[in-house]
Specification:
heterodimer, A: 357 residues, alpha+beta, Alpha-Beta Plaits, four-stranded mixed β-sheet, two-stranded antiparallel sheet, 10 helices, 25% helix, 15% strand, globular, B: 306 residues, mainly alpha, Formate dehydrogenase/DMSO reductase fold, 1% strand, binds iron/sulfur cluster
């Protein structure tokens, strides 16, 4: 009945098979599935085309019958967060997709026409620019007229820097966050009951009938994804719609996304697509575009759900360099064993060093 | 040193989730595990070296502490009725799984030994039970350090090499303190020695925790955690000093034992609160990670491809 986890060999010495840390070519097989398991699936969330409609959030709540909560995860409460259009606030037990809204407005140091990225229609004289933007409002309207979906529009102005006639630059960033379904998932590693498990699709799922609400997975996740539903006691998070996958359907969020910002598919295919998309954007001058969670040499061995971002990860509330905590666990166990031995040593010498009465 | 570093966040929101572990349940559990663990070791050695009074007190402390810690652990679960799910699997990657397999035999052995100690039955079995408890006592006191450190909570994870030693030494201070308070002074020499050694190690290590980990040491010095840890330092230092000066008198033993136990308890509360504070503020997550990235880019650490 009792089974020993497959990561055990990693504690015998080195970790030659990257069971705790590092790239894993086949995370599903490593978890114990036969070689004929399905391919690893994932999400590629391209935030450069997200329009912030929250269809993903709604579809997720509907399909998974998640209860309502406010931006701090308090159940059955409506509250405005004051954070732009984001009243979801965070990922949690009741919100498995979360669309972040970032409004950026910043003063440019050197408002000279020569400074800026290709296509930036900015100028310092206050006079109409060649493109005919007299002032900021017009240029915002202009920005909206250009669909961000349109690669040509993107090449004309970098959403980073374009669109203003004054020295103020404004842009909006929207990004639909979700559980990363890590290659090395801390939540899964630390779960003492085996409630969290790796599915045949390489995703990470909680079994609600096993979880005893010990809460260990909650602070273990380096992204702050999984959380406890207070009145239930157990933890909940995105399952990548495990129930839909087994029926050959796409996850609800990807199905609902109108701009294909959320793309679902085989992970290797998504990675190739993301690399191509990044190359396109960069060739168009969107220099701040970057992939997040794509690199399998990163701290979690690469994510099953990864992102194309237009700014630093922390701007979206993501950790810039997440590391699976269990990477350091062998060192911790060594410290614990040495400390336990120290206790015996101190107690022994305390007894032996004391005269009997 | 890195107090005013600039960093960006999403509306000041925390990045990692706060632990959902309840207080005082979990700090009390940490404290009891340490006191019970160290007492059981002391009891087992005192037994074979013929110190009946100390043996008895140490066994009762270990037994009582272990039963209480099981109560607190189960009470902290979101679904207490499912506590046996802890024993479904053994996972070395999960300190709580390993800990369950330490706590279960420890509390069974220490609890049974304490019970027969009270009832005065089966003297042979008692020695065996006490020895089993003594074997699991050290791991019980130290695994909890791994339990906290093996998370994404910045101020806990950063001190992962110190924390098991902090909890071991703090446990010795508490176990030594409690047993010294209840054992006739003539036989309590081992308790005093263990308590003073434990207190000294704890004070030294906590200084490292509070000062040598850059920005993630900060939560140990400020706010609620800072208050707890200041008080802990005072109690532990006073308790250790008083043990040396007056530990051989009845009153002195009781006073210093109480101070040492209080110091240990306050240390657990302080460490726990420091972790909570470091999870709450995104700067403790972002800044160390940024520094790590920068160091990697400058070639100070193995660089990552791509
Ligand atoms: S560690 Fe966090 S992000 Fe990774 S699989 Fe677990 S819950 Fe998801
Ligand atoms: S709360 Fe549930 S899923 Fe999370 S670690 Fe504990 S048993 Fe596992």
């Amino acid at each position: 009945m009792t089974s020993v986890s497959s990561a055990s060999p990693a504690f015998t010495g080195k970790d030659p098979q990257n069971r705790l840390f590092g790239p894993l070519p086949d995370v599903t097989e490593e978890a114990g599935y036969e070689p004929d398991h399905p391919k690893r699936v994932g999400f590629f969330t391209d935030t450069s085309v997200c329009i912030g409609c929250k269809a993903c959030e709604v579809a997720c709540k509907e399909w998974n019958t998640l209860p309502m909560d406010d931006s701090h995860g308090t159940r059955d409460v409506i509250g405005l967060s004051g954070m732009s259009y984001d009243n979801t606030g965070q990922l949690g037990a009741n919100s498995w997709r979360h669309v972040a809204f970032v409004e950026q407005s910043r003063v440019v140091d050197l408002p000279m026409p020569a400074v800026g990225l290709p296509g930036a229609t900015r100028q310092d004289t206050g006079e109409p620019s060649p493109a005919g933007h007299a002032h900021q409002d017009d240029s915002l309207a202009e920005a909206q007229a250009h669909s961000v979906l349109n690669a040509e529009a993107l090449s004309e102005f970098d959403p980073q820097t374009a669109q203003t006639g004054s020295d103020k630059q404004i842009r909006w960033l929207m990004s639909s966050d979700v559980c990363k379904h890590c290659t090395h998932a801390a939540c899964l590693d630390v779960c003492p009951t085996g409630a969290l498990f790796r599915t045949e699709y390489g995703t990470v799922v909680v079994q609600g009938d096993i979880c005893n609400g010990c809460g260990y997975c909650v602070p273990a996740c380096p992204y702050g994804v999984i959380d406890q539903r207070k009145d239930d006691g157990r933890v909940f998070k995105c399952t990548m719609c495990y129930d839909r996958l087994t029926d050959g359907l796409m996850p609800a969020c990807a199905t609902a996304c109108p701009t294909q910002s959320i793309q679902f598919g085989d992970l290797d295919e998504l990675q190739a697509r993301a690399d191509a998309r990044l190359a396109t954007l960069q060739s168009q001058g969107v220099e701040t575009a970057r992939l997040y969670g794509r690199d399998e040499d990163d701290g979690v061995g690469g994510a099953g759900a990864f992102f194309l971002l237009l700014d630093e990860p922390e701007v979206y509330g993501l950790p810039p360099d997440p590391v699976v905590t269990t990477r350091d666990l062998p060192a911790m166990w060594r410290a614990a064993a040495t400390a336990a031995a120290m206790m015996v040593g101190v107690a022994l010498s305390a007894v032996l060093g004391s005269r009997k009465r | 040193m890195v107090d005013d570093v600039e960093f960006t966040s999403y509306y000041g929101r925390q990045i990692v989730k706060s632990p959902v572990w309840k207080t005082p349940d979990v700090p009390l559990y940490l404290f009891l595990g340490g006191a019970a663990g160290s007492s059981s070791i002391l009891g087992a050695i005192a037994d074979v070296t013929g110190r009946p009074a100390l043996t008895r007190v140490a066994r009762l402390t270990a037994g009582g502490g272990s039963i209480l810690s099981v109560v607190f652990l189960v009470h902290d679960l979101g679904r207490p009725e499912r506590f046996l799910h802890m024993l479904r699997v053994i996972k070395p990657t999960s300190p709580l799984s390993v800990g369950s397999y330490i706590l279960a035999p420890f509390s069974a052995a220490a609890g049974a030994t304490a019970a027969v100690e009270l009832l005065g039955w089966f003297p042979r079995l008692k020695r065996f039970g006490g020895a089993v408890a003594g074997i699991f006592g050290g791991p019980l006191a130290t695994y909890t350090g791994v339990l906290l450190a093996n998370t994404a909570v910045p101020s806990w994870h950063a001190v992962h090499k110190e924390l098991p030693f902090v909890f071991a030494s703090s446990g010795m201070a508490a176990g030594g303190g409690v047993t010294m308070a209840f054992t006739p002074v003539a036989e309590a020499g081992p308790s005093r020695k263990m308590a003073v050694t434990g207190a000294a190690i704890e004070l030294g290590l906590m200084h490292r925790v509070e000062h040598e980990h850059g920005i993630v040491s900060e939560p140990y010095r400020i706010g609620k955690a800072g208050k707890f840890l200041n008080a802990a330092r005072t109690c532990t230092a006073a308790g250790a000093g008083l043990t040396v000066l007056a530990g051989r008198t009845r009153l002195g033993a009781i006073a210093s034992g109480t101070l040492l136990a209080a110091g240990s308890l306050l240390t657990r509360f302080g460490v726990f609160e420091a972790g909570l504070a470091s999870a709450k503020d995104p700067k403790y997550t972002v800044i160390p990670q940024r520094e790590r990235l920068a160091a990697r880019q400058n070639g100070h650490a193995p660089s990552v491809t791509h």
